[in-house]
Specification:
Blueprint: E1 13-18, E2 42-47, H1 53-71, H2 97-105, H3 125-141, H4 155-168, H5 173-180, H6 185-191, H7 193-200, H8 203-228, E3 237-239, E4 245-247
Parallel strand pairs: 1-2
Antiparallel strand pairs: 3-4
């Protein structure tokens, strides 16, 4: 796994394993931190022979969650081999299944995962999509007239509903793009151009109301200024030929 992404800065690999000095293929030293174009993208935690649950979990919690929060991956792949288990003859670590489950629960609410298994592992997308259909069917079975049943919908449709509702409410496109994970708001503009066209139908009325309010405010301010201006005294002044002011 490390070799496949060793020079790819887009992928962070974290490995907790038995020290390579005591185990084939003798790779995975702490000094191996990534290729020339991906320095610090590989993290190797080499553990001594005989490491058990407490020591392994201490290393895990100290290193893995903080790095994930800093790297903020879009996709999380958790690869749990059997090598660490105390009954596996290929290595010499002493973990139990309880420790492996404890590590799995650390993924909950970290990395932005929405749906996870009871061990905190990502669910296969089709599993969640099928759940959406089951939830709608279960709801419709309990619906009694005159209430209408829910139409068929995909889980992905909720994403479009969210974006459409925000855009129609006047939320700026760049804010909606950030919530959808679009790196460029231009993508959001292309995908939801039909929504923006519908929203633009009332722009003329909004502009007219804004102009009307501005004119009314200006006229009101002018009236106040006239009321506050001091009355004229009826006196006037002029200049004589030598430039001195004279009262008339």
């Amino acid at each position: 796994m490390q070799r496949a992404f060793y020079n790819d800065p887009r992928v962070l690999t974290i490995s907790l394993h038995q020290h390579p000095a005591t185990l084939f293929p003798f790779t995975g030293l702490p000094a191996e931190t990534g290729g020339p174009d991906a320095e610090r993208s590989a993290v190797n935690v080499a553990l001594p022979t005989g490491t058990g649950d407490a020591s392994w979990l201490r290393a895990f919690h100290a290193i893995v969650p903080p790095l994930l929060h800093q790297f903020r991956p879009q996709i999380l792949v958790s690869q749990h081999g059997c090598d660490t288990h105390r009954l596996d003859p290929l290595a010499n670590l002493e973990l139990s299944i309880d420790a492996q489950r404890t590590a799995g629960s650390a993924w909950n609410d970290s990395g932005g995962l929405v749906f996870t298994s009871r061990w905190g592992e990502p669910l296969y997308p089709d599993t969640v999509s099928a759940l959406m259909t089951k939830l709608i069917s279960a709801h419709n079975r309990s619906v009694t007239p005159p209430a209408a049943p829910l139409p068929h919908a995909r889980l992905h449709d909720l994403r479009h509903l969210h974006a459409t509702t925000l855009l129609l409410a006047g939320v700026p496109v760049h804010v909606v793009a950030a919530r959808l994970g679009h790196a460029d708001p231009a993508v959001t503009l292309r995908v939801y151009s039909h929504v923006l066209r519908e929203h633009a139908a009332g722009v003329g009325d909004i502009f007219a109301q804004a102009v009307k309010a501005s004119v009314s405010k200006s006229a009101s301010q002018t009236g106040k200024d006239d009321q506050q201006r001091p009355p004229a005294t009826g006196r006037a002044f002029g200049k004589s030929r030598d430039g001195a002011l004279q009262r008339r």
